[in-house]
Design brief:
Blueprint lengths: L1 E5 L6 H12 L2 E4 H14 L7 H9 L3 E6 L2 E6 L2 E2 L7 H11 L2 H15 L4 E5 L2 H5 L5 E6 L2 H14 L6 H17 L12 E4 L5 H16 L3
Parallel strand pairs: 1-6, 1-7, 2-6, 7-8
Antiparallel strand pairs: 3-4, 4-5
The chain binds 2'-deoxycytidine-5'-monophosphate.
Amino acid sequence: MIVAIDGPAATGKSTSAKLVAQNLGFTYLDTGAMYRCVTLSVLRHNIDLSNNSALTQLLSDLNIEFGQKNGDVSVWLNGENVSAEIRQADVTNHVSAVSALASVREALVRIQRQIAANQNCVLEGRDIGTIVFPDAEIKFFLVADDRVRAERRQLDLKALGEDKSIEALIADIRRRDKLDSERDHSPLRKAEDAIEVDTTQLTINEQVDFMVNKVKSLTIGN
Ligand code: DC
Protein backbone atom coordinates (compact mmCIF):
# COMPACT_ATOMS: atom_id res chain seq x y z
CA MET A 1 0.00 0.00 0.00
CA ILE A 2 1.17 3.51 -0.81
CA VAL A 3 0.32 6.47 1.42
CA ALA A 4 1.14 9.76 -0.33
CA ILE A 5 1.68 12.89 1.76
CA ASP A 6 2.24 16.10 -0.20
CA GLY A 7 2.09 19.80 0.55
CA PRO A 8 4.16 22.96 0.83
CA ALA A 9 7.14 23.37 3.17
CA ALA A 10 6.69 23.50 6.95
CA THR A 11 3.15 22.14 7.06
CA GLY A 12 4.23 19.31 9.35
CA LYS A 13 4.72 16.77 6.57
CA SER A 14 8.02 15.26 7.68
CA THR A 15 7.23 14.88 11.35
CA SER A 16 3.78 13.48 10.77
CA ALA A 17 4.74 11.26 7.81
CA LYS A 18 7.49 9.66 9.91
CA LEU A 19 5.05 8.97 12.76
CA VAL A 20 2.29 7.73 10.45
CA ALA A 21 4.78 5.24 8.95
CA GLN A 22 5.95 4.16 12.41
CA ASN A 23 2.40 3.72 13.64
CA LEU A 24 1.37 1.62 10.63
CA GLY A 25 4.66 -0.30 10.43
CA PHE A 26 5.29 1.05 6.91
CA THR A 27 8.58 2.19 5.36
CA TYR A 28 9.00 5.98 5.39
CA LEU A 29 10.50 7.81 2.42
CA ASP A 30 11.38 11.50 2.65
CA THR A 31 11.68 12.50 -1.02
CA GLY A 32 12.57 16.12 -0.14
CA ALA A 33 15.74 14.77 1.50
CA MET A 34 16.64 13.20 -1.86
CA TYR A 35 16.31 16.55 -3.67
CA ARG A 36 18.38 18.09 -0.90
CA CYS A 37 21.13 15.47 -1.39
CA VAL A 38 21.36 16.29 -5.09
CA THR A 39 21.47 20.01 -4.23
CA LEU A 40 24.26 19.45 -1.71
CA SER A 41 26.22 17.54 -4.30
CA VAL A 42 25.66 20.27 -6.92
CA LEU A 43 26.92 22.91 -4.48
CA ARG A 44 29.93 20.89 -3.38
CA HIS A 45 31.02 20.26 -6.94
CA ASN A 46 30.15 23.79 -7.98
CA ILE A 47 28.08 22.52 -10.90
CA ASP A 48 26.43 25.00 -13.20
CA LEU A 49 22.79 23.92 -13.57
CA SER A 50 22.92 24.51 -17.32
CA ASN A 51 25.81 22.03 -17.65
CA ASN A 52 23.83 18.94 -18.67
CA SER A 53 26.73 16.54 -18.95
CA ALA A 54 28.09 17.41 -15.48
CA LEU A 55 24.61 16.99 -14.07
CA THR A 56 24.09 13.65 -15.81
CA GLN A 57 27.41 12.44 -14.41
CA LEU A 58 26.48 13.58 -10.91
CA LEU A 59 23.11 11.81 -11.12
CA SER A 60 24.64 8.58 -12.36
CA ASP A 61 27.16 8.59 -9.48
CA LEU A 62 24.45 9.28 -6.94
CA ASN A 63 23.81 6.80 -4.16
CA ILE A 64 21.25 7.83 -1.55
CA GLU A 65 20.43 5.57 1.38
CA PHE A 66 18.19 5.99 4.39
CA GLY A 67 18.82 4.52 7.82
CA GLN A 68 16.42 4.39 10.76
CA LYS A 69 17.41 4.19 14.40
CA ASN A 70 15.25 4.88 17.50
CA GLY A 71 12.74 6.84 15.42
CA ASP A 72 15.44 9.04 13.85
CA VAL A 73 15.93 8.86 10.10
CA SER A 74 19.37 9.54 8.68
CA VAL A 75 20.33 10.12 5.07
CA TRP A 76 23.54 8.87 3.51
CA LEU A 77 24.94 10.36 0.32
CA ASN A 78 27.58 8.19 -1.34
CA GLY A 79 28.49 6.66 2.01
CA GLU A 80 28.50 9.91 4.05
CA ASN A 81 25.88 10.81 6.66
CA VAL A 82 24.58 14.19 5.44
CA SER A 83 21.40 14.36 7.58
CA ALA A 84 22.31 17.68 9.21
CA GLU A 85 24.06 19.28 6.26
CA ILE A 86 21.10 18.91 3.88
CA ARG A 87 18.98 21.02 6.28
CA GLN A 88 21.34 24.00 6.21
CA ALA A 89 20.36 27.34 4.67
CA ASP A 90 22.62 27.07 1.64
CA VAL A 91 20.95 23.83 0.53
CA THR A 92 17.46 25.15 1.36
CA ASN A 93 18.09 28.28 -0.73
CA HIS A 94 19.10 26.31 -3.81
CA VAL A 95 16.88 23.23 -3.63
CA SER A 96 13.93 24.69 -5.55
CA ALA A 97 16.13 25.49 -8.56
CA VAL A 98 17.70 22.02 -8.54
CA SER A 99 14.38 20.22 -8.06
CA ALA A 100 12.88 22.13 -11.01
CA LEU A 101 15.20 20.30 -13.44
CA ALA A 102 13.59 17.50 -15.46
CA SER A 103 16.73 15.33 -15.41
CA VAL A 104 16.92 15.50 -11.62
CA ARG A 105 13.23 14.68 -11.23
CA GLU A 106 13.40 11.73 -13.64
CA ALA A 107 16.37 10.21 -11.82
CA LEU A 108 14.85 10.61 -8.36
CA VAL A 109 11.33 9.50 -9.30
CA ARG A 110 12.83 6.30 -10.74
CA ILE A 111 14.60 5.60 -7.43
CA GLN A 112 11.46 6.45 -5.40
CA ARG A 113 9.36 3.99 -7.41
CA GLN A 114 12.01 1.29 -7.01
CA ILE A 115 12.20 1.74 -3.24
CA ALA A 116 8.43 1.70 -2.78
CA ALA A 117 7.76 -1.21 -5.14
CA ASN A 118 6.31 -4.24 -3.36
CA GLN A 119 6.29 -2.79 0.12
CA ASN A 120 3.96 -0.71 2.26
CA CYS A 121 5.32 2.79 2.16
CA VAL A 122 4.56 6.33 3.31
CA LEU A 123 6.11 8.76 0.83
CA GLU A 124 6.34 12.44 1.58
CA GLY A 125 6.99 15.19 -0.97
CA ARG A 126 5.41 17.55 -3.48
CA ASP A 127 4.42 15.30 -6.39
CA ILE A 128 3.81 11.89 -4.83
CA GLY A 129 0.05 11.82 -5.38
CA THR A 130 0.22 13.49 -8.79
CA ILE A 131 3.30 12.03 -10.52
CA VAL A 132 5.24 9.43 -8.54
CA PHE A 133 2.26 7.33 -7.44
CA PRO A 134 -0.92 8.72 -9.05
CA ASP A 135 -2.64 5.43 -8.12
CA ALA A 136 -1.65 5.58 -4.43
CA GLU A 137 -4.36 4.01 -2.28
CA ILE A 138 -4.57 7.10 -0.11
CA LYS A 139 -3.34 10.68 -0.57
CA PHE A 140 -3.09 13.55 1.86
CA PHE A 141 -2.32 17.17 1.04
CA LEU A 142 -1.19 19.21 4.04
CA VAL A 143 -1.62 22.99 4.22
CA ALA A 144 -1.16 25.58 6.99
CA ASP A 145 -1.18 29.30 7.60
CA ASP A 146 2.07 31.06 6.49
CA ARG A 147 2.86 32.54 9.91
CA VAL A 148 2.41 29.21 11.68
CA ARG A 149 4.64 27.56 9.09
CA ALA A 150 7.31 30.23 9.65
CA GLU A 151 7.14 29.70 13.42
CA ARG A 152 7.62 25.96 12.93
CA ARG A 153 10.59 26.55 10.62
CA GLN A 154 12.09 28.98 13.16
CA LEU A 155 12.02 26.25 15.82
CA ASP A 156 13.64 23.74 13.43
CA LEU A 157 16.41 26.23 12.62
CA LYS A 158 16.97 27.06 16.30
CA ALA A 159 17.64 23.39 16.89
CA LEU A 160 20.35 23.63 14.20
CA GLY A 161 21.79 26.77 15.85
CA GLU A 162 20.43 29.24 13.26
CA ASP A 163 18.45 32.37 14.12
CA LYS A 164 16.09 33.93 11.61
CA SER A 165 13.20 36.40 11.97
CA ILE A 166 9.60 35.37 11.33
CA GLU A 167 9.28 37.99 8.58
CA ALA A 168 12.35 36.64 6.75
CA LEU A 169 11.04 33.11 7.13
CA ILE A 170 7.58 34.01 5.77
CA ALA A 171 9.30 35.57 2.73
CA ASP A 172 11.46 32.43 2.25
CA ILE A 173 8.45 30.14 2.53
CA ARG A 174 6.43 32.18 0.01
CA ARG A 175 9.34 32.30 -2.42
CA ARG A 176 9.80 28.53 -2.22
CA ASP A 177 6.05 27.84 -2.54
CA LYS A 178 5.96 30.03 -5.64
CA LEU A 179 8.95 28.31 -7.24
CA ASP A 180 7.68 24.83 -6.35
CA SER A 181 4.15 25.44 -7.61
CA GLU A 182 4.99 27.40 -10.76
CA ARG A 183 7.74 25.18 -12.17
CA ASP A 184 7.12 23.39 -15.50
CA HIS A 185 7.93 19.87 -14.31
CA SER A 186 5.74 18.26 -11.65
CA PRO A 187 4.66 21.48 -9.95
CA LEU A 188 3.37 21.29 -6.39
CA ARG A 189 -0.39 20.80 -6.56
CA LYS A 190 -3.06 18.87 -4.76
CA ALA A 191 -4.17 15.69 -6.52
CA GLU A 192 -7.91 15.74 -7.17
CA ASP A 193 -8.47 12.71 -4.97
CA ALA A 194 -6.22 13.89 -2.10
CA ILE A 195 -7.64 14.60 1.33
CA GLU A 196 -6.71 18.14 2.35
CA VAL A 197 -5.57 18.51 5.96
CA ASP A 198 -5.20 22.04 7.35
CA THR A 199 -2.61 21.64 10.11
CA THR A 200 -2.69 25.28 11.34
CA GLN A 201 -4.60 24.42 14.52
CA LEU A 202 -3.54 20.78 14.83
CA THR A 203 -0.88 19.28 17.04
CA ILE A 204 1.39 16.67 15.48
CA ASN A 205 -0.49 13.95 17.39
CA GLU A 206 -3.81 15.15 16.00
CA GLN A 207 -2.46 15.16 12.42
CA VAL A 208 -1.02 11.70 12.85
CA ASP A 209 -4.19 10.26 14.43
CA PHE A 210 -6.33 11.73 11.66
CA MET A 211 -4.17 10.21 8.91
CA VAL A 212 -3.66 6.84 10.60
CA ASN A 213 -7.41 6.51 11.20
CA LYS A 214 -8.13 7.31 7.55
CA VAL A 215 -5.68 4.64 6.40
CA LYS A 216 -7.07 2.11 8.86
CA SER A 217 -10.66 2.81 7.85
CA LEU A 218 -9.66 2.20 4.26
CA THR A 219 -7.94 -1.10 5.01
CA ILE A 220 -10.87 -2.42 7.02
CA GLY A 221 -13.29 -1.18 4.40
CA ASN A 222 -15.24 1.49 6.33
O1 DC B 1 10.24 18.89 1.98
P1 DC B 1 11.57 19.63 1.82
O2 DC B 1 11.51 21.07 2.27
O3 DC B 1 12.71 18.90 2.43
O4 DC B 1 11.82 19.66 0.23
C1 DC B 1 12.93 20.31 -0.32
C2 DC B 1 12.61 20.80 -1.72
O5 DC B 1 12.57 19.69 -2.62
C3 DC B 1 11.31 21.55 -1.91
O6 DC B 1 11.54 22.94 -1.98
C4 DC B 1 10.76 21.07 -3.21
C5 DC B 1 11.55 19.86 -3.57
N1 DC B 1 10.77 18.64 -3.63
C6 DC B 1 10.20 18.32 -4.82
O7 DC B 1 10.29 19.08 -5.77
N2 DC B 1 9.53 17.14 -4.97
C7 DC B 1 9.41 16.29 -3.93
N3 DC B 1 8.75 15.14 -4.11
C8 DC B 1 9.97 16.62 -2.68
C9 DC B 1 10.64 17.82 -2.55
